[in-house]
């Protein structure tokens, strides 16, 4: 995708296949573990539907206010979206991760798996959907694509030893803000 600078239907197919393989792997891995209690499936589906409906209902409003705020602050809308959109769109993951990490012995591990799963979905399904519905020119977004690639490589290398301590955490936070700063310089 980066090589020829476009995202289209032909890119969507391998991205969806990669994500399907990941989901299959996670399902097989989940079946091997013992479950600690039955999940209320009706309640889970209801929460999922309510959350999806809320996101759909408020997304246009969020984008409009994001643009208006960027104009008011005198910063590029793309830059403000790089800063605020991930925070707003993934707030549930962050709250859940903090709760998991502080309340259960294996909570930190579950939180990391949740974050990684989300990033895999973002890098496959969301890009595939863009490719299915548009023929998107990646050249204007190339700095963000390269930054995301670098950040993901650094994140994977950081987790290779199976440990995530305070030093690694601080380094990743500094990396996040450095990427935001450099993207601001670009715009």
TrEMBL record:
Membrane topology category: Multi-pass membrane protein
Superkingdom: Archaea
Gene Ontology terms: cellular component: endomembrane system; membrane
Residue intervals passing through the bilayer: 6-25, 45-67, 110-133, 145-162, 169-186
GO terms, molecular function: calcium:proton antiporter activity
Residue ranges of every copy of the Sodium/calcium exchanger membrane region domain listed in the record: 44-184
An individual GO BP term: intracellular calcium ion homeostasis
Gene3D superfamilies: NCX, central ion-binding region
Main location: membrane
Keyword Lipid metabolism among UniProt keywords: no
UniProtKB keywords: Ion transport, Membrane, Transmembrane, Transmembrane helix, Transport
Subcellular location: Endomembrane system
Name of the molecule in the record: Sodium/calcium exchanger membrane region domain-containing protein
Gene source species: Candidatus Aramenus sulfurataquae
